[in-house]
Amino acid sequence: MARTTVDSPELALERQAARHREVEHRVKNTLQLISSIVLLQGRRAKNEAARQALRAVQQRVAAVSVAHRHVGWAADAEEVEVAALVREIVGDLAGSAGREGVAIDLDLEPVVIDGRSGAPVALLVSETVGNALRHAFPDDRAGRVRVALRRLG
Q1: Mean pLDDT of 73-94
Q2: Is the dihedral of CA 81, 83, 84, 90 positive or negative?
Q3: Which residue has the higher pLDDT, 75 or 85?
Q4: What residues contact 26, with CB distance under 8 A and at least 6 apart?
C-alpha cells in the first residue's frame, strides 16, 4: 500500500506559487505568439484595409498583454496600478504611430483597480489614444494629446 505524504503549509504555498508563475509564463508566451501571428498576417495582406484591421487586432492583443504584465498581488487579491499600465500602452502607441509632430502629455495620478479590470481598461486606453493618434490630426498636422488619470470618489 502506498503512503500518502502531506505537504507542510509552506511547501503547499510554494508549489501553488510555482504553478501560478508557470501559468503566467504560458499566458505571456501565448499572447506573444498571437501577436506575432497577427503581425505576420498583416505584413502578407495585399489589401490596405486588411492590413489596418490586422494592425488594430495586434494593437489590442498588445494592450491585453501589457495589462496581464501589470497584474500584481496585494493581500489576497489581484490588482493593477493603472498609471503604470497607461504609461506603457501610450509609450508603445506613440512609438509605433510615427507621429513626431504629435506630443503626448501624461497627467497620471496613482490609481489601483482590481486585476480583472486591467484588460478592459488597457483596451479602452489603447483604442482611445490609438484613435487620437490616427485621426485627431489629419494630413500630418502637429498637435497634442493629453491623457489624464484621476480617482474620483
Answers
A1: 90
A2: positive
A3: 85
A4: none
Above 80 in pLDDT, residue 2?
A: no
Amino acid of residue 10: E
**Is residue 105 within 8 Å of 146, Cβ to Cβ?**
yes
Q: Enter the C-alpha cell of residue 111.
A: 490609481
Report how far residue 122's alpha carbon sits from residue 67's, in angstroms, rounded to the nearest whole number: 6
Whether 97 contacts 131, CB under 8 Å: no
**Sole residue written with cell 497634442:** 144
Q: At 104, is the secondary structure helix, strand, or coil?
A: strand
How far is the C-alpha of 79 from the C-alpha of 101, rounded, in Å? 35
Contact 111, 72 (CB under 8 A): no
CB contact at 8 A, 81 and 88: no
DSSP string, 125-137: HHHHHHHHHHHSS
Cell digits for 59?
A: 494593437
Q: What is the pLDDT of residue 5?
A: 67
Using one digit for the tens of pLDDT, what is the confidence trace for 62-71? Answer: 999 988 888 8
